[in-house]
Design goal:
heterodimer, A: about 130 residues, alpha+beta, mini-chromosome maintenance (MCM) complex, domain 2, four-stranded antiparallel β-sheet, 8 strands, about 30% strand, B: about 350 residues, T-fold, three-stranded antiparallel β-sheet, 9 helices
Chain lengths: ~130, ~350
């Protein structure tokens, strides 16, 4: 029995397994980093811009036709200006994590960071 | 011998790569779509291949837009809008059914929440760009029109008939009814989904990030993406359906002469309800009931009657007051995780 087991699993195999796992871990980490944080600007249900926030080096503004200005920063996105009355969209502040979103309802504009924060909940009520 | 080892190594490599591929894909095997409906944001995360998810999302938005076309007070095409502007209107069976459901739930809740408060909400204008505190006289006059018994839903002739000056405001129920429709759009599907509609949530099917669905409860004192606690809801089987709805005084409010007025009006006084509560989150088996209950519980406050209502609907709730204290009903005690230590349990003994 012991002999048989030794025939199936050899010390050399264990080294191979360890090496493979290490490679997989590195690969996975690199992939996860590469996908980064992607933000979307949605107007009236249509995605009008998709931005890789991890590739943003310097902050810039996106001015939309409907009177809304969205600021894009390295790793963050937020509403910078809007012609709406209550300015709830501006008060929502910066979005930095997957799953976060903010909306300007009067202008039917939404910004969000796509995906699901692994540490965050499935949904938010409030 | 060497050949065998090599072959084994190759097999292992393949397995590991598969594993890595699966891991980098896990948690991302969903399609997320957003639409604007009924003055709110509708977001669905559907755990299905894109094509199927797209189809399901189309059905969800059709359902939600159908609710908007029937019972929205702001959609010019809806029978409710027409009735509000002319005193009566022709209504299809669906509209009368939904309004009937609302009236039934409100009757069970002793009229604590009431769809006939339209004249009052219009007066305060919380949804408008120019909200204001009305005079006492204006509020008294508007209060005269409030009352479920003054509303006639005529199933036989297919019409809504309001009493003099009465207006309907289904605002406290619309999102819940819309989520009930979202469920109908999904219910034959075998895919899990999370549908969020302006702060109300529908959880459908088996959880996808563990054994439980996790739902954050918004921190009433912070921004819209911050939660002070998390509920972990563990389904008994894969056919889970859960609805959550929150009523909070932080939602729509305005300040006039140094006084802040929030949007949850008491149908009894005509004023924003005076309470220590800042939010109530209700978890129930239906969209309409969770939506109506969260508002009714907020208005009625944390007391025996409120807890009895929750029990009679098989619902659970989390109450938060202005001193950062929370109260959880028994059924949620094991599901509740606090994310912010500055909150503490309330003294109230249920």
């Amino acid at each position: 029995m012991k002999d048989k087991l030794q025939k199936i699993v050899r010390p050399a195999d264990l080294i191979v397994v360890a090496a493979v796992l290490a490679v997989a871990a590195v690969l996975w980490a690199v992939l996860a980093h590469l996908t980064g944080t992607t933000a979307q600007i949605v107007c009236d249900g249509e995605v009008i811009a998709t931005i890789d926030l991890s590739a943003v080096k310097e902050a810039y503004d996106v001015t939309l036709d409907n009177g809304v200005t969205v600021r894009v920063e390295p790793g963050a996105i937020c509403f910078a200006a809007s012609d709406c009355a209550n300015l709830l969209c501006i008060h929502a502040g910066k979005l930095t994590r997957a799953g976060q979103s903010a909306a300007c309802l009067p202008n039917k504009t939404l910004i969000r960071i796509t995906g699901r924060d692994r540490r965050g909940p499935d949904a938010l009520t409030g | 011998m060497k050949k065998q080892t090599l072959r084994r190594a190759a097999a292992l490599c393949c397995a590991a790569l598969l594993l890595a591929g699966a891991c980098s894909g896990c948690g991302r095997s969903f399609t997320e779509r957003t639409a604007f409906a009924m003055g709110s944001v509708l977001t669905a995360r559907i755990y299905a291949p894109e094509e199927q998810a797209e189809k399901l999302f189309g059905r969800i938005t059709d359902g939600v837009n159908g609710v908007d076309r029937r019972i929205s007070a702001t959609n010019p095409d809806s029978p409710v809008y027409a009735a509000n502007h002319t005193g009566s209107s022709n209504a299809d069976a669906y509209t009368l059914n939904k309004l009937g459901d609302i009236v039934m739930v409100c009757n069970i809740l002793n009229g604590t929440v009431d769809p006939t408060v339209g004249a009052l909400t219009e007066l305060w204008g919380f949804s408008s760009d120019t909200p204001r505190k009305p005079t006492d006289g204006e509020i008294q006059a508007a209060l005269e029109t409030v009352g479920l018994e003054k509303l006639l839903l005529d199933d036989v002739n297919g019409s809504i008939i309001l009493s003099e000056g009465q207006k309907l405001d289904p605002g406290a129920f619309g999102k819940g009814i819309a989520l009930d429709e979202a469920y109908l759009a999904l219910h034959t599907a075998t895919y899990s989904a999370v549908v969020t509609f302006g702060g109300s949530v529908l959880l459908f099917g088996a959880p996808k990030s563990g054994k439980s669905w996790t739902v954050g409860i918004r921190d009433p004192f912070k921004g819209e993406n911050d939660s002070f606690a998390t509920l972990s809801l563990t389904p008994d089987d894969d056919n889970y359906v859960g609805y959550l709805s929150t009523s909070g005084s932080y939602e729509k409010n305005f300040t006039e002469n140094g006084v802040t007025y929030h949007h949850i009006l008491s149908p009894e006084t005509g004023y924003p309800v005076e309470t220590d509560l800042v939010s109530v989150t209700v978890c129930a088996g239906g969209g309409l009931s969770s939506d109506a209950l969260s508002t009714a519980c907020f208005i009625n406050g944390l007391n025996e009657t409120t807890l009895r209502w929750l029990k009679s609907f098989g619902a659970e709730a989390v109450f938060v007051n202005k001193d950062k204290q929370y109260y959880i009903t028994d059924g949620l005690k094991d599901c509740f995780t606090l994310n912010d230590d500055s909150f503490s349990p309330m003294d109230h003994e249920g």
